[in-house]
Amino acid sequence: MGKKLSEELEEIDAQIKKLEEQRHDIYRRSLEAPEEEKVCADALSKMIIETSFFEGIEYPIEVSAINWEDSDSLSFCRGDGPTLVAVRPADSEKTYVGIYVGDLPLGVSASYHTESGVLSLHQGHQNPAIVVPALKKVVMGCESWWQPIESEDDFKKITDEDIENVWYVKSLRRWAGKDE
Predict the structure, then answer these.
(1) Domain housing 38
(2) Which of 13, 79, 88, 115 could pair with 95 as two cysteines, CB 3.0-4.6 Å apart?
(3) Count of the separate structural domains present in the chain
């Protein structure tokens, strides 16, 4: 009969620890190496030597509390409240009427304090959330072109020309060598 799963895991943990020690040794030697042999800047080497991806956390962990660093998932609208917008999803050639309702986090990260057992959750970068009734979904600002509708004149389609004239689209096209 083969090894127990716990024995296999112990062997892997031992290998990881040995590799981590070897990695730290390389960064220590890099501090003393001639400039052309360094693996990175000395400040970064020192930081890596002082930390470990596996240091201090024994799995499974015991969580004594969960702390949400940011209390609200939705940061409601800037200004006077929900705003009517024209929105064109990046994967569409059609422009829709949407309602900007506020900003939502694009992701969540976590950190664990080994001494207290507190797991802290942190919201990621906030991004405009636009409800598009015709699509029956929320389109994020980073995946679309959108603009507030303040008058009937604003109630026009967002055209390819509008998109091509955005400064960062022009820069990306130049960088990619696709500029005329």
Answers:
(1) 5-50
(2) 88
(3) 2
Burial annotation 15-39 (CB, 10 A radius, 16+ → b, else e): eeeeeeeeebeebeebeeeeeeebe
| Contact status, residue 86 vs residue 97, Cβ threshold 8 Å | yes
> Are 22 and 71 in a shared domain?
no
pLDDT: is 37 or 164 the higher one?
37
Structure tokens at 85: 């917008």
For the stretch 46-100, pLDDT in tens is 877 776 555 555 667 788 998 887 656 556 656 667 888 889 999 988 888 889 9
Q: Among 3-17, 18-32, 69-83, name the one with the lowest average pLDDT.
A: 69-83
- Are residue 105 and residue 131 in the same domain, yes or no? yes
- In angstroms, the CA 49 to CA 74 distance is 39
**Cα three-residue angle 16-21-23, rounded to 5 degrees:** 90
Same domain, 81 and 142: yes
Task: Say how far apart CA 16 and CA 8 lie, in whole Å.
Answer: 12
Say if residue 37 is in the same domain as residue 73: no
- Tell me, yes or no, whether 82 and 45 share the same domain: no
User: What is the widest separation between alpha-carbon atoms in the chain?
Assistant: 77
pLDDT at 17 (0 to 100): 85
